[in-house]
Structures are given as C-alpha cells and as structure tokens.
Amino acid sequence: MASISKLSSWVNLKKHHVYLQDVQISHLFEDDAKRQEHFSLEALGMHFDYSRSRIDDKAMTLLYRFAEQSKIEDKIQALFKGERLNTSENKSVLHWMWREDKDEKVIIDQRNIMPVVLDARYQMKEFADKVVRGQLTGVTGKKILDVVHIGIGGSLLGVKTVVESLKQYHQIGVNIHFVSAVDGTEMDDLMYRLSPETTLFLVASKSFRTPEILALADRVKEWCDYLMGENAYKSHMIAMTATTKEAKRFGIKDEFVFPFSTQVGGRFSVWTTVGLTIVLALGWERYELFLAGGRSVDTLMKKDPVELNLPLRMALLSVWYRNFWQAEAKCIVPYAGRMKTFVPYLQQVFMESNGKTSDIDTAGVVFGGVGTDVQHSFFQALHQGTDLVPVDMILFGKPTGKDSEAHRHVSLQAMGQAEFLAFGRRKTKETKKYEYCLGNHPVHLLMVPELNPYTLGQLMAVYEYEVILEGFLWDINSFDQFGIEFGKEVYRRLEENEGLGEPSTRISLAKLQELS
Length: 516
Ligand code: F6P
Hints:
This protein folds into 3 domains: 24-85 and 304-474, Glucose-6-phosphate isomerase like protein, domain 1 (Rossmann fold, 3-Layer(aba) Sandwich); 95-289, Glucose-6-phosphate isomerase like protein, domain 1 (Rossmann fold, 3-Layer(aba) Sandwich); 482-515, no CATH class. It contains 19 helices and 13 strands. The chain has helices at 8-20, 25-31, 35-38, 57-69, 72-81, 114-133, 157-165, 185-193, 211-228, 244-250, 276-282, 284-303, 310-324, 342-354, 379-384, 404-423, 453-474, 482-496, 503-515, and strands at 40-43, 46-49, 107-108, 111-112, 146-150, 175-179, 199-204, 237-241, 257-259, 329-334, 365-368, 391-396, 443-448. The protein has a 6-stranded mixed beta sheet, with helices on both faces. The protein has a 5-stranded parallel beta sheet with strand order 6-5-7-8-9, sandwiched between helices. It has a two-stranded antiparallel ribbon with strand order 3-4. It is globular. The chain binds 6-O-phosphono-beta-D-fructofuranose.
C-alpha cells in the first residue's frame, strides 16, 4: 500500500489540524452547549467521554474517513478469519480464540481448532481444583499453600494485572506470588519466606527459551531437590508454554505442561494457559467471567466494527494526537489502587506491538500510573510542562475498595484533575509566568461501572483492540517483536564470549567488574 500519508483523508486531516492548531478546549465547550453529549460514547456498559479534547466534528468525520480508506473492516474480518496477519512470521493472530465461548467453533484452514482450547481449559480446571482441594500435594504429601508465577513480559504482566486488581475476588486457598527479576532478589525473598514442601512454581514462558526465566527455573529446580530430594522438583514445577518440547526437555512432567498455541503473541497470552495462575487465584467461575468480559469485546468487534466501536474511537483519537499533533506520549491513569500493573501491561501491549519502523510516526511512549499517586509526581509536567500528552483516566462507578467515602474522594480528585488539565487556571494581567497553567490538555474519561472479573476482561480487551486497530490504521505488523528478539541475541553473544561485544561494551563491563 502506498504510504498512508498520501490518502486523501490523511491530507485533509493535516489541513484540518492546521485550522485547529490554536483551538482551546474551553472554546469548543462554549461553542456547543451539548458538547459532552456529542463527544461521548456508550459501549459495553462503559461510558467514554472524550469532550475534553482538541477535537471537533470535522476532525472526527475525517478520522472515520481515514479508517474507511484504511479498510479497517476488512482487516477486522481478516483477524477473525485467522488470516496470517503476523506477516513476518507467517502466523495467524488467535489470542481471541482462547476466550471464545465453549460452544462455539473456530474454523481455521477448514478445521475447527476450538478443541485445543477446550482441552486446555479442562486441564486447567482439573488441576486447579485438585490444588485448592488439597488433592494435589507436594512431594512430601503436604497441601499447597503458595503458588509462585515465574514469567516476564506478556507471560507475567497480564496475569499479574488480573490477580492483583481483583484481590477482593480471590478464593481462599493459595497465596499467589510473582517473580520476573533476573537478579534473583524476588526469588531470594520468597525462598526465605516459603517452604518448598507447600509451594508450586508455575513457569510461564511461550518459548521456554527466555534466558531470565530459565535461570530462575534452574534455581528453583536446584532448591527443590536440595531441600526435598532428587527430582522433587518434578512435583513442584509446572509449565505454561507454547513450546512443550522445551518444557519436557527441562524436566517438567507431561501432566504438568499446560500448552497453548504459537499463534498467540506473548503480550496477548493472558487469555491462554498462561492464565492458570488466575484460575488458582479467582477460582474457575470468576476466571470464566474474565474470559466472558474479553469475549464481549470480540462480539462488539464482529457486530459493530465501526460506528459505535469503542476501541476504534480510542484508536482514532490516539492517531489524531500521535500523527497530527505530534504527541510523543500518551498517559494512562487507572483510579484504582490495585491496578498498579495495568499500566506496565499496557505499555508492553502498545509499545511492543506498535513501536515499529514506518514512514509515519507509529507508537510513542505509553506511561502512567495509579491515580491519585501520579497527581503527586509527573502530573506537574502535564500541568505546566511543554509537551502535549493526552491522558486516559479510567474511573469506576462503584468503590474499588471497602471504603465508600474514599471512593467519593478518588472520584472528585479525578474529576478535578480532568477539569484542571482541560481548562487550566484563568490567566490575568497579574498572573506571573511561573503561575501559568494554560490547560488545553486532552483528557479522556473511560468510566466503568465496577472493577470485577468481567469488566476487567472487557477493559483489557478494549485496550488490546485499540492497539490492534492502531496497527491496522498505520498499516504495520503489530504482532511480531524483532527488536526484542535481536536484543536477546546480543545477550546470548555476550554470554557465550564477553569478548565478542563492541570495544565500548568490553570497557564498560571491565569498569563494572572493577566496582565489584
Ligand atoms: O519481549 C519479548 C517477549 O517475547 C514478549 O513478547 C514475551 O511476552 C516475553 O518476551 C517473554 O517471552 P516468553 O513467554 O517466551 O518467555
């Protein structure tokens, strides 16, 4: 496809941005008494209010024309047909299949491949039931009390987001811990506190070749055998992987290998057997609610790929600020204290999917944090800094904790910040330069009725689709990650022979060793 910057819609968006470049959000509100109604969308039980934004009707019309010229509907259909959209690796993109309804068929290459998912779910449910009921014990016959999820990137962040965010929905039974740090400190702390006899280690790794994870798994293997006897690890180590051969080669028992398919990107794998930890934390019913929430967004994508499609609206706004306002970052702020991992999870989904080479700007930096913490850190730069940074605030109707007064406080804090970001402080002749808060910062409110397994599944799938649709609009492959793969090669080369690195690398390594 010729560069998308040659599309008529793109050219017209460029022109319209020039017309709007001095626009004030406050003036847009003055010009349209019903602006909040006109620039809001109800979908999936959520309310998306993008009125506090540098956007008008004409820009929205042009953005939808751009979506049409990008053949967005054809690309969405291609996704669900299992076409090999991961062109560089010649793979389909099938993470959505892992949250499909059990009674549905998924026909890919004339074959219903849903049984793979159903078998995996059966295996997960049976295993988790046995653990929680104490039927599956450690090698010394003791009930499992702690589960350690070992993974990195997409093999940890999505699962950790779900388990931490839904703490109030945890079933009594096992304590869940997460480890990714290759310096071993998280494992140090756990090995100090936990008894190997009552601990299961779930090794989540799509490739089962990630050096950091294999190093941690080797350490666990040694620890188990040292304290409980030779091959004791076989009763305490589980693998969730798309590479069962490697897991078995490591020594994981066949019945403790939970496979998923290679046509699922690591950052999209929370819906697969990588989510076994979610089942252990929440129980099967709530796990199925989580899947159902994600599935509700698939249904929206199939039934209404354009007009009332929330992820597409979000993706088009993202493109508007990235490509026409040259915003170099976007900020995501969930106002829920237990959603700390949600932003790192989204950072990987956005930046590992869409941080790709192109002749137009693709993914910028995605950052953020939990509100109101961030109001006491980088929000200063948003209020008085020199960059344009669109902000997504995620708000919940019902309290996310036990204290309803605290919830009211959080809601008012968020709304106050949204007002201040959009409208700033009125400037007078006496206002000193250091007092300027000019506002005019785009801030979008995504309001969710309640934080629960179903709505969290929805929220994660909505953002997943925003990323995928952005990639469709940018005409890039959102499903590979060669930058990371090549980064792994550099490590491997140095691991084999430190002398193979750049001279500067050798000098710095030597300097570091001097400090040791
Ligand atoms: O960052 C690259 C990547 O492959 C991610 O896509 C993936 O989530 C992470 O590393 C871990 O990979 P694996 O699940 O194969 O251990």
